[in-house]
Amino acid sequence: MAVPFAEEEERNKSISPKPKLILYVYVLFTTFLLMSHVLVGETSSSSCPVSRKTVQTVDSCPENEEDWKKAAERKNCFQNASQCDEPARLVYHCVINPYVNETLEVCAYSQIIVFGQCTEYDIVGNSIQGNEETNCTGFSPKPCPNGYNSSEMFKYPGCFDLVKPSATNPPTSTLGSRDSVSYSCLAFVFLQCFIAYGIPCSF
């Protein structure tokens, strides 16, 4: 006995997945994962508020362990450690700024720097992180590995040699890494919406 066309169509609808619904769920899920990752990064103890108060521009950074230890004793980060959630992590740093036109001394949480980048301190994000515009793996002598501890920057003095003061560069405090992360998130959501619906999402 032949099944009426309308009944057959209804049956196919009931057993076939709905592409738009699947895409919608996919968009929500991937967006949730991305935003959760960003929020966890922002709320975790990756920095101490007191670090901003300890930032000081210096003419040069120590380029060996002995001088680094002397500078650390002079900076005396321990006196501010009690204001941090993890006092033991607050240590001396001498690093470049995001624009690679200054060297900065700061008491901050040490971080593992990856991708062979020089270490920077971003005062807006209050974070020790890799500078994406640099690559110290090719330095000669003393190249850096793909991963190292930020509190050992003295081992890779080539990063300090990159600093070239310029009046045309904007000051350190006008740009933060969190802004770029936020824009990346929005771009990601925009792309997912475009894939799912063929139209941009409005925010």
Give a structural overview.
There is one protein chain. By secondary structure, this protein is of the alpha+beta class. The protein has a domain at 51-170. It contains six helices and seven strands; from the N terminus they run H-H-H-E-H-E-E-E-E-E-E-H-H. It has helices spanning 5-15, 19-43, 51-54, 65-75, 158-161, 177-197, and strands spanning 56-58, 90-96, 103-109, 112-113, 119-122, 127-130, 148-149. The strands form three sheets. Strands 1-3-2 form a three-stranded antiparallel beta sheet. A two-stranded antiparallel ribbon has the order 4-7. The relative contact order is 0.15. Keywords: Membrane, Transmembrane, Transmembrane helix. The chain crosses the membrane at residues 21-40.
Descriptive keywords:
203 residues; alpha+beta; 6 helices; 7 strands; 37% helix; globular; membrane; transmembrane helix; transmembrane
Strand content: 5-15%
The stretches of 5 or more residues where confidence is low (pLDDT under 50) are 36-44, 167-186
- Average pLDDT confidence is 77
End-to-end CA span? 54 Å
Instruction: Give me the Rg, rounded.
Output: 25 Å
Task: Please report the total strand number as a whole number.
Answer: 7
Strand count, sense and barrel status of the largest sheet are: 3 strands, antiparallel
Shape: globular
Which structural category do the helix and sheet elements fall into? Answer: alpha+beta
Q: What is the H/E order?
A: HHHEHEEEEEEHH
Trace the largest sheet across and list its strands: 1-3-2
Number of helices: 6
Helix coverage percent: 25-40%
